[in-house]
Specification:
2 copies of one chain form a homodimer.
Chain A: E1 4-6, H1 25-34, E2 36-41, E3 46-48, E4 56-62, E5 65-70, E6 76-82, E7 87-88, E8 101-104, E9 108-114, H2 118-124, H3 126-149, H4 154-171, E10 178-180, H5 185-192, H6 196-208, E11 212-215, E12 218-221, H7 224-232
Antiparallel strand pairs in A: 1-2, 2-9, 3-8, 4-7, 4-9, 5-6, 5-8, 10-12, 11-12
Chain A binds a DNA duplex (30 and 30 nucleotides) through helix 6.
DNA sequence: CGTATTATTGACTCCATTCAAAGATAGTGG
DNA sequence: CCACTATCTTTGAATGGAGTCAATAATACG
């Protein structure tokens, strides 16, 4: 739970996606001095729990994670899926306690920008502060897109999920057309606000329509344009 | 569109809600030096448009506003309602362009923390930076709550909307039990992802059940506890 | 190989939407 | 001040999309 190692943001490979994005070499060095790499987690292990004290902003180095919140009924809600280079932990910024849990979806490693070094960095590396706000703003825009999506029919939600996952994987150097879902139908449904049976039926429908190929959790995107059209052509409200 | 005046955060009355919250007198003075007050807008006027260049973080001084995004179908989505002391403009942080519009719901005045003075403030007033992140984190938690809510039945969504509005008004010194909605049924429905007819029917139902009194857009909360119970007692998924 | 978990598929149900029409309210100009 | 109009709201009836329940099938795991 507390084995940290020094890390160098300069030769990480995610430097164009992660926090150092757009910073000078000198600024990256300043960050590297305080950023810690944490040891690898296995599927199901927690990056942090709901209620944990805020210890800083995390960055996924490899693997993936889900951000999970519990409502007053005790139901879990998968709010976000996090891929390499993405920052998380913002849910602990407001009152020093995390309001969500972050759980590894596969073997996952991550870095930590410790909370107690943040004020110092604000003063010394203002462009990092700006960059951190930029990331935070991106998260908000994503959340807003998800909120808009939540009012759309099931088909669009699932199409958007697949397209968005494909694009994000591509930006990280993975295949955009073939990938393995690290989520069960249940989890996809939970994330999109659908019953797991609906997810199953729609994946089948997409396959029958020649848009994708489904083999268990492996997805092959056959006709990306047609998938995109599902988002564009449907009626408004 | 560009008449700014100097303003003093120290004697604003919203200092325990707005950005200066928790800062020292000296720090508040530093902020006041760069924060501008902008002249009052009428209902329907824009605080900023979608696509506008990011010019800074805004704070509602009086009145209220709605944050509106357009999807690819051209439909408008009311993402948030903003009350006095709340910050907005975060949707412009990520790429220097606003991805939403902010529109006054009534006669409304607001302040501006200009973008070009932000990096300077990061260096000079790190605790303000921390506070700004805190606000940003609060927004995210609110967005996540809204996302969770979007999966719940219509009755719960509307109950939550009323309770949350009541609580936020109370914190600002307004009555928690009697208030005027600055939104039409249409707008409430849009915000909650419901048809306007559903909003109308549910308001009637709440009234018939003795939870609230509805007179046009005036709402009186009669039985807050029963309203809260709607959120607690219903089934899970 | 057997067991537990996960996924598929069908039938039925229901909540919320849509369509439609009437009623109320607010704003405007004569 | 009242009439007129545009907008907003209420209410009813019918429809449909997605959920629930249930049973079977496939996959992963020890």
């Amino acid at each position: 739970m507390s084995k940290f190692n020094q890390v160098s943001c300069g030769n990480c490979g995610l430097d164009n996606i992660c926090l150092p994005r757009g910073l000078s070499q000198q600024e990256i060095n300043s960050i590297s001095e305080v950023v810690k790499a944490k040891k690898t987690l296995q599927r199901g292990e927690f990056l942090y729990h709901e209620g944990d004290n805020f210890r800083g902003i995390l960055a996924i180095k490899s693997g993936s994670a889900k951000l999970v919140a519990c409502d007053q009924h005790g139901n879990e809600h998968i709010l976000n899926i996090l891929l390499p280079g993405e920052l998380l932990g913002f849910d602990g910024l407001s009152d020093e306690k995390h309001s969500c849990a972050a759980i590894a979806l596969e073997t996952t490693s991550f870095c930590l920008l410790p909370a107690d070094s943040m004020e110092e960095l604000f003063q010394n590396v203002p462009s990092m502060t700006r960059e951190l706000f930029r990331h935070s703003g991106e998260k908000m825009v994503e959340d807003k897109n998800q909120l808009i999506l939540s009012k759309r029919p099931a088909e669009e939600r699932l199409a958007y999920f697949l397209i968005s996952l494909s694009e994000r994987l591509k930006r990280r150097g993975f295949s955009a057309s073939e990938f393995k879902l690290s989520l069960s139908r249940q989890e996809i449904g939970n994330h999109l606000g659908l019953a797991l049976e609906t997810v199953s039926r729609l994946l089948k429908k997409f396959q029958d329509d020649g848009l994708i190929l489904v083999q268990n959790r492996f997805i092959t995107i056959i006709n990306l344009q047609a998938l995109r059209n599902l988002l564009q052509l449907s009626d408004s409200d």
